[in-house]
Amino acid sequence: MATTKVTAADFEQVVLKSTTPVLVDFWAEWCGPCRAVGPILEEISNEHGDKLKIVKLNTDEEGAIAMKYGISSIPTMNIFVDGQVVKSIVGARPKPALLKDLESYI
Amino acid sequence: MQDLNEIVIVGSGPAGYTAAIYAARAQLKPIIYEGSVTAGGALMTTTEVENFPGFAEGVMGPELMESMRKQVERFDAQIITDDIVAMKLSGDIKELTDGAGNTVKAKSVILAMGSAYKEIGLPNEKRLSGRGVSWCATCDGFFYHNQEIAVVGGGDSAMEEANFLTKFASKVVLIHRRDLFRASKIMIQRAAANPKIEFLINHEVIDVLGEGKVVGLKLKNTLTGQESVKDFTGLFVAIGHLPRSELVKGQINLNNDGYVEVEGRTTKTNVSGVFACGDLVDYTYRQAITAAGSGCQAALDAERFLAGH
Lengths: 106, 309
Hints:
Chain A is of the alpha/beta class and 106 residues long.
């Protein structure tokens, strides 16, 4: 399935209360590496979305959530299980490397 | 994709794209692997480029690269947004494998993998990467509104990052281990004239402090050896680059610093049919325009090589 956009309004429902692991991609329009990794996350979501839900959070629009999770570099990809951050991947990387990082969730 | 291609280009900064433009116009139907996340190269994370000729008003780095890519697309070239993960360069037929596992064969290869950010090499630098330690001011500067941060480095990129970061930060301290800067005069003057930038010369960063995020830096005066601690919420590292030559190590000659060695004023490596250009080769100039120039040379050298084989 395709990635979806998450906002403050549905963050709790979509991310924190999810019964499957969720990857939150903290990104912004002006960030080159974020735009580079975007299509890769899209592919991974299409291939593995049943096991790992991938959602995108725009740090320009949702600064409070980014601050709450101490985001200071983007892209940061946090994996949430049962409402807790269990893994944090910082920086764009090629698909095989990302799949390796995610292997215990997909 | 043909079974045996004339030319494959690996990498896509100004060097790779320029090589692709020339090779395509020479009707060699190049395939260019632009990189899955590194497409466009180092200029993708810069801001304004003021010294690329032809842009009288300056141009944003990513915009310049987007424009070079479009220029490649005008001609008969195939752009693949993936990485090359393995290469076999010896012999008449070169074999390259991409991230998706496909193998492509070619009579000649142009290497243009560029360079990667250099780390200071401190144990806590890696641990706090993304938690206050950053290599990309344009990506991360936004998160440092009204904060006091440090930039380490003495070249143009350190000056540029420091200037850019003053848009967000309340104060930027530029830390450099010597009292002489490698940066160009205009960039040093601009930083010196910026009231938010403070210079801390003859100091090096010896540790990054903080548990979950950066809270300060441990510094050492390089003249007296005296150590001190200063509070910062962010550290931007701009101490230079390292050539991305790991993939070809052991197959072609590299110098002691890992740059690919080329013959004289050409782009020929010691392996027949393999050419190299851009930051992968150049430890002296490292400019967008010199990279583009060497990409052009590599395409012309490859074209001559192919004509003779």
